[in-house]
């Protein structure tokens, strides 16, 4: 499977054993291709940059059940209920 995303979506993918390809809206917004006001990937920008939407992660609010960790990582499966990016102020 080919997928594209941010560091957090990669970490989630790895933590869930490749089961979940997702991010939160703050991290999606950092790509400059996600419309945080309308809450969806911007079709015009994806077309401009020739990015198939199917490559991109699902986007949820910060507090969401994003999935469960692969049991082998920590000795048992643990839920992942949050993800958040930060806004840098220059």
For the largest beta-sheet, the strand count, sense and barrel status come to: 2 strands, parallel
- Strand numbers in spatial order across the main sheet: 1-4
Shape estimate: globular
* Oligomeric state: single chain
Q: Helical residue percent?
A: 25-40%
List how many beta strands DSSP finds.
6
Beginning-to-end CA distance, first to last residue: 37 Å
Folded structure, characterized:
The chain is an alpha+beta fold. 27% of the residues lie in helices and 22% in strands. The chain has helices at 7-15, 25-29, 43-48, 71-74; strands at 22-24, 34-35, 40-41, 58-60, 63-68, 79-82. The strands form three sheets. The chain has a two-stranded parallel ribbon. Strands 2-3 form a two-stranded antiparallel ribbon. The protein has a two-stranded antiparallel sheet with strand order 5-6. The longest helix is centred in the N-terminal third of the chain and has 9 residues, at 7-15. The chain is globular and about 45 Å long.
